[in-house]
Amino acid sequence: MILKRFYDEKLAQASYLIGCAATGDALVVDPNRDTEQYVRAAEAEKLRVTAVTETHIHADYLSGSRELAQVTGATLYLSGEGGDEWSYAFAATDGATLVHDGDRFSVGNIRIEVRHTPGHTPEHLTFLVTDTAGADRPIAAVTGDFIFVGDVGRPDLLERAAGLHGTMEEGARTLFASLRRFAAEQPDWLQIWPGHGAGSACGKGMSAIPHSTLGYEKLFNWALATEDEGEFVAAVLAGQPEPPRYFAEMKRLNREGPPALGGFRIPPRLPGAQLADALEGGATVVDLRPADAFAAGHVPGTVSIPLNKSFPTWAGSLVPFGRAFYLLGGDEAAAAQAARDLAMIGLDDAAGWWGADVLDAWPGELERVPQINAAELRARMEAGEVAVVDVRGRSEWDAGHLPDVPNLPLAFLAGRIGEIPAGRTVVLQCQGGARSMIAASVLQAHGIKDVVNLTGGYQAWAAAGLPTEKPEPALAPA
Fold first, then answer.
1. Which three-class secondary structure state does DSSP give residue 372?
2. Cα(189)–Cα(192) distance, integer angstroms
3. Contact 191, 212 (CB under 8 A)
4. Are 36 and 225 in contact (CB under 8 A)?
5. pLDDT for 475
6. Quick one: which of 114, 43, 111, 32 has its CA closest to 72?
7. How far is CA 44 from CA 14, 71, 351, in A?
8. Which of 64, 236, 366, 387 is most exposed, with the fewest beta carbons within 10 Å of its own?
């Protein structure tokens, strides 16, 4: 058996190529939109992709399963579990084979056994992998968003990201049952090959270690070690990070049928004079430069989303789907990287880019975002000169925040502009500079110009020994 793991750092997402050296057949599990990487890897191992599958309908990236199957002529295996509401709308037209709990299919001498493991989503599958050339039992389970190293998939996304109210407690109880069943049926030596690592919003405490064993997870994964259902439900729902806004769009597209990308493209470089036209036309212009560079001077109306590890997360929440947008800052390589990162989550409409030199030629005055330290902020708050907005996620705010300061998470800030007090300096605070700078750019782009950033955010405030508060903990589910 040949195994290759692919890992996208910005999505914190893993996919797998599993090949049979004897027959040359290969399966790809949970491919992302960079389909060419799987074709190249298979060719390098003298394999051909003959089967493609995915563990569930993903929320955090656009699936490449459909396109990869089309390009290679491979059989597409999709979940037939979860009921009509969670069936793949394109399965019939694409000639996909629907698989259910207990089904098996072969890729050369590799046997794949299907296990229905709902909880994270109703249709979720786990795949047991057996190399029949030398074994009669599985070596590993490709677990997707079911079991991670150190954590399990969150069951609240259908409610919090897709708007299906009343589903997260039911999902948590279903997940508990799935974990108990799986742990009872499978041997401790079974390897766990998960779909995500540390940094993914699909869980709250997963490890950066790429794989584990079921026995190890029984000992040290809190979820598998928790025997009481009520305790598990309360714990798995508590402290989950705010889901990025684009998750709902990914769910919809991945269910209805992700459009074929046909390879990544570099948007054209545009004349500087067209920047003003784009902004006047209401287009989104994303400034890719680091937060401190944006704070020192930026073109009014542009939105700061630094091209770093968190770029897809914030872009997916702030750049509109289905409309042309533009990139600013950096060089052609940066524009190409940004366009690729955005295409991975279905933002395919990058219409062009400008280098940072357009700022030097900008005919008007550049905007800035001044900084303020914790002591200065406290004095201005006591004087009633400023309003403060906490743009962290709810779980961070729950862990501690400035007294009497509202929580407007960055992903939802643009839709809650009306809650910002008029006529006062607005101070934004979180941990780290990039997120609050993005928030400052959103406010300025919406006409709230008098914005200041708290250097070091909440962490600096707390470190200075200034007052903080926490809300009362919610009651655990019965």
1. strand
2. 9
3. yes
4. no
5. 41
6. 43
7. 20, 17, 34
8. 366
> Distance between CA atoms of 166 and 237, rounded to whole angstroms?
13
Q: What is the pLDDT of residues 389-412, one digit of tens each?
A: 999 988 888 889 999 999 999 988
DSSP string for residues in 270-308 = --TTHHHHHHHTT-EEEE-S-HHHHHH-B-TT-EE--SS
pTM confidence score: 0.92
| Residue 453: strand pairing partners | 371, 428
* The pairing of beta strand 125-131 with beta strand 75-79: unpaired
CB of 203 within 8 A of CB of 196? yes
pLDDT given at position 259: 93
The low-confidence residues of the chain, meaning pLDDT below 70, are 161-163, 432, 472-478
Helix axes 35-44, 65-72, angle to 10 degrees: 50
Place of tokens 């969670």: 86
117: tokens are 């493991």
| Separation between Cα atoms, residue 199 and residue 190, nearest integer Å | 25
236 close to 154: Cβ distance less than 8 angstroms? yes
Query: To 10 degrees, the CA torsion angle through 300, 302, 303, 306?
Result: -110
Going by C-alpha positions, the residue among 430, 425, 420, 473 that lies closest to residue 455 is 430
Q: Give the phi and the psi of residue 75 in degrees, each rounded to 5.
A: -75, 130
Tokens at residue 283, please? 């287009």
At which residue do the structure tokens 């073109």 appear? Answer: 299
